């Protein structure tokens, strides 16, 4: 799993003092941080909690495209010239989030080499994760994709202590994220539970033994 090499970005370490153009806010569950189609005028950094990114199609279909946690940035698309938000960010658990407006972000990237270097490293790590997600979608079974997603959500394979109890996440959401049906997700979840890989009774708890499903054999890139 590519997440093994991804280090969390520690904003407080590289910006230890308050910077003009930054604000810290607490968000409650289901609060909307920004919406698809709004002006992209700032970037957000998650200190605590989890946030989901959703995209709404022209046909009105909504899909969850990512779930982000502590150490992640969101909304940085304006740095690549995106004038509008391409997704909606919704809080899944209570969050502490720092907002950095566009001018402040550009200023820090230009004036602070340490911040710029660490931010670029973070973006490269995220790019590696996106590429791994693509390989996962193209070559792995839906069962293995589900196992990998659950481990990512529980923070296994990242720096810091795993959080085996996953925040509110529905089978429909899991199905959207791995490209399968809710019934298939239900089937695999029941299988994982019977094997003792997860506990799924009112809340979802992931055990490290679920790694065996992912590590049992790698993606069949050669098409076998």
What is shown here, in short?
With 224 residues, this protein is of the alpha+beta class. The protein is built from seven helices and eleven strands. It is globular and about 55 Å long.
| Element string (H = helix, E = strand) | HEEEEEEEEHHHEHHEEH
**What percentage of residues falls in helices of 4 or more residues?**
25-40%
* Rg over C-alpha atoms, rounded to the nearest angstrom: 18 Å
Alpha-beta content class: alpha+beta
Model description:
- The chain has 7 helices and 11 strands.
- With 224 residues, the chain is α+β, with helices and mostly antiparallel strands.
- Strand 4 and strand 5 form a beta hairpin.
Structural descriptors:
globular; 224 residues; alpha+beta; 22% strand; four-stranded antiparallel sheet; 11 strands; 7 helices
